Amino acid sequence: MAGPAPRRRLAELALVLALAAGLPATGTGQAARPAERGPPVRLFTEEELARYGGEEEDQPIYMAVKGVVFDVTSGKEFYGRGAPYNALTGKDSTRGVAKMSLDPADLTHDTTGLTAEELESLDDVFTRVYKAKYPIVGYTARRILNEDGSPNLDFKPEDQPHFDIKDEF
Predict the structure, then answer these.
(1) Which residue, 5, 132, 144, 168, has most beta carbons within 10 Å?
(2) Whole-number Å distance between alpha carbons of 89 and 109
(3) From edge to edge, which strands make up the β-sheet containing 68-71?
(4) Tens-level pLDDT at each residue, the chain (169 residues)
(5) Is 109 helix (H, G, I), strand (E, B) or coil?
(6) With contact defined as beta carbons under 8 Å apart, do 21 and 117 qualify?
């Protein structure tokens, strides 16, 4: 059972997320126009994300890059069963995207040891391909929580597209 410190940190993170969701997006004091909103985002464990690997015809196809889960179903010809990039689906394939690799050893969230060029490529593909083309449906639990269940203090709510804590509960 979690002690008071981890619970408090989780409560603090929830408060930060809730407050950040209501902040105006401009410095003029005017609230920005609300962005187009899809379905509420959610957290995915590795096991949950694995269910969306493109094997079932009636299921959406999801993949994660940098802990952000994208619905790539509209690119079924690239990500569906038997398609060239199907190996990237149903998991966080950040390293594979950075290295432009489909090697099973690279199909992981781990970015340890990537070169500056690979990290730059990752950011470029993340922004110009995935964020530009595919709806965000959630985040990997690893992005928000550390392995011990404590909050990931590097998680920045302001960097999360259409993340709204009240949609999560």
Answers:
(1) 144
(2) 12
(3) 42-44, 136-140, 68-71, 62-65
(4) 445 554 444 444 443 333 333 333 344 444 433 445 556 678 899 999 999 999 988 899 999 999 999 999 999 999 999 999 999 999 999 999 999 999 999 999 999 999 999 999 999 999 999 999 999 999 898 877 777 778 777 776 555 554 444 444 3
(5) coil
(6) no
**d(C-alpha 105, C-alpha 61), whole Å:** 21
From CA 167, how far away is CA 131, in angstroms rounded? 20
Q: Which residues are 136's β-sheet partners?
A: 70
For the residues of 9-28, what is the DSSP string, one character each? HHHHHHHHHHHHHTS-SSTT
CA distance linking residue 93 with residue 38, whole number of Å: 23
Pair of tokens at residue 16: 């930060």
